[in-house]
């Protein structure tokens, strides 16, 4: 009897070991297959497979349009309310009356704010790469206002043409009357709107992680999978990147609102991880979004704004140009185009566009325009590649589900 009991125990232990080895083998094969599928998706780009990429992009666009249409249909009451409100506003816009001066003012402010909010969302969401709209749009705008303020000794630029074109006011001003606070106040609206846009752009990782945690389903995002792996290997992480990500995760999880505020208030490339962390641990929406909005639209934007204003203040710019000229051999040749560009900008500030002053084009402005075009084109290409890869992922998941049902 004892021998039979021993044999049964050994067989049971052997079956458990075989089952464990089978599960281990299956999981390793599954992870290897996912790795191969990920590499296959990453190869679906316009410069490698143009026809396949364009086909997948159009199919993914149609699927997204269908999904959005279904969502709108399920929220018919909200859609009807929005359309009625839009109809009332349209009627108010076209009906003549004394209210038109307020309508024009609100229209100008609305489109100005929407422009910067949209650029902030593009910079934060990015769909894989991000369009660095602070470097391309907001930073140069703040720099232009700063240079003009020191040249004109005023920020009371005539509107119009401001903000499309900066012209010095006609009234006489005393030298050195401009203050740092006046420049900050002049660009505060657009800077805060851009920061609010970046805060809105941080919501997709939060909602993705929150939905995955509440549903218990396998997350459909590689960053979330990386986050799960980081939590599993948190104690053994040694490299700097893993430890930095873990520090952000611990700060957000343990400190809460003020931890999110601290992460959002400083330039932080790991803030997407903070959004995933908040969604994973079911941090309330207004706690996450409120801290993110205050951090990005108020604190962080004032830090970035101060940096740009101080960098492009009159005496700093003059020192930078003189330092460029001090570079041996190539200094004078590099200094000349910068001096020409600054002089051309000063002339433009004192003459309106219809005054007949020739508007010369400097190679620095030409290079910046081409850089903007290249960045926008690359951003559009990244959107096409990302959507094509999303459709490829749909096909792979469909294949998984079909194999499971067999």
UniProtKB/TrEMBL annotation:
Keywords: Membrane, Transmembrane, Transmembrane helix. It comes from the Eukaryota. The chain crosses the membrane at residues 77-95, 115-138, 251-267, 273-294, 306-327, 371-392. This is VMP1 protein. It comes from Grus americana. The lineage of its organism: Eukaryota, Metazoa, Chordata, Craniata, Vertebrata.
């Amino acid at each position: 009897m004892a021998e039979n009991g021993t044999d049964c125990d050994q067989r049971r232990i052997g079956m458990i070991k075989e089952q464990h080895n089978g599960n281990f083998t299956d999981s390793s094969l599954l992870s290897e297959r996912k790795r191969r599928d990920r590499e296959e998706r990453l190869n679906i780009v316009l410069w490698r497979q143009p026809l396949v990429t364009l086909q997948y992009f159009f199919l993914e666009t149609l699927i997204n349009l269908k999904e959005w249409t279904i969502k709108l249909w399920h929220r018919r009451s909200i859609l009807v309310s929005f359309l009625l409100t839009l109809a009332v506003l349209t009627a108010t816009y076209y009906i003549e009356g004394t209210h038109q001066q307020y309508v024009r003012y609100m229209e100008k402010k609305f489109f100005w704010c929407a422009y910067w909010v949209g650029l902030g969302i593009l910079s934060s969401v990015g769909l894989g790469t991000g369009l660095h709209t602070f470097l391309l749009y907001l930073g140069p705008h703040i720099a232009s206002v700063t240079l003009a303020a020191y040249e004109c000794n005023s920020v009371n630029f005539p509107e119009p043409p401001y903000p499309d074109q900066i012209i010095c006011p006609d009234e006489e001003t005393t030298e050195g009357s401009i203050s740092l606070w006046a420049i900050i106040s002049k660009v505060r609206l657009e800077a805060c709107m851009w920061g609010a846009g970046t805060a809105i752009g941080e919501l997709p990782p939060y909602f993705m992680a929150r939905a995955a945690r509440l549903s218990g389903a396998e997350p459909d995002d590689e960053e979330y999978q990386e986050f799960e792996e980081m939590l599993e290997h948190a104690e053994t992480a040694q490299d700097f990147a893993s430890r930095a990500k873990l520090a952000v995760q611990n700060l957000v999880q343990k400190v809460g609102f003020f931890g999110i505020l601290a992460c959002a208030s400083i330039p932080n490339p790991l803030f997407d991880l903070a959004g995933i962390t908040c969604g994973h641990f079911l941090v309330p929406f207004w706690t996450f979004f409120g801290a993110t909005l205050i951090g990005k639209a108020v604190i962080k934007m004032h830090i970035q704004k101060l940096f740009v204003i101080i960098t492009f203040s009159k005496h700093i710019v003059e020192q930078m140009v003189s330092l460029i000229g001090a570079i041996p051999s190539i200094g004078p040749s590099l200094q000349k185009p910068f001096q020409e560009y600054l002089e051309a900008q000063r002339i433009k500030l004192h003459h309106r566009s219809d005054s007949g002053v020739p508007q010369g084009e400097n190679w620095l402005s030409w290079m910046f325009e081409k850089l903007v075009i290249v960045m926008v084109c690359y951003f559009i290409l990244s959107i096409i590649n990302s959507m094509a890869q999303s459709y490829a992922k749909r096909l792979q998941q469909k294949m998984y589900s079909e194999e499971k049902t067999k």
